[in-house]
Amino acid sequence: MAESEAGLPEVHVQPGESLLVHDPTILRTILGSCVGVSFRVQRLGIGALCHPMMPRCPAGLAGRADGRRYVDYAIRELAGRLDSLGARRSEIEVKLFGGGDVLQVSNGSVRPTVGRQNGEAALDVLRREGFELAASSLGGKSGLNIKFNTATGEVLLRRLS
Question: Where are the domains of the chain?
Fold first, then answer.
């Protein structure tokens, strides 16, 4: 675990991972077509970041750790963990990033890209779970590097060229 410029531990959340922390930490990740969803509960001093890669979890993977690769499962799983810690949905600050079209698609394709599907799935699940977004940056043609300070809720975003 590295230490950030702010003197906080810094942890890289890999694709398909979710991490919930109880101490001030910088959670960072790099997104392309994946989405990153940050959760912060100031009252409880906890923060979380998930980095799912695909929109919908097949039924056979529900309840397994590799379900975290899927947007719907990762968000619901973290929501359940926050619920069990006593967080109320109304006090959870949620921010959503990524879902870019970073992979080249054929010009004639009318199917939504994986990035777009990931963004739409995240918006749908967050709404169904009763969360309101405090901030978001979805889409685009480039990847993102994000750093989430769980102590302040600040998310620094840098577009990759």
Answer: 2-144
At 78-111, the pLDDT tens digits run 999 999 999 999 999 999 999 999 876 666 667 7
64 pLDDT exceeds 80? Answer: no
In CATH terms, is domain 2-144 a member of 3.30.1330.200?
Answer: yes
Residue 138, CA distances (Å) to 21, 34, 135 in order? 25, 10, 10
pLDDT tops 70 at residue 36: yes
Q: Please report where in the chains the tokens 């890999």 appear, as a residue.
A: 14
Which distant-in-sequence residues (6+ apart) come within 8 Å of 67 by Cβ?
57, 61, 73, 74, 77
The rounded distance, in Å, linking the Cα atoms of 143 and 99 is 9
| Cβ–Cβ < 8 Å for 94, 136 | no
E-only strand ranges, 9-138: 9-12, 18-21, 26-31, 35-41, 46-50, 93-98, 133-138
* Residue 137 DSSP code: E
81: enclosing H helix or E strand: helix 71-84
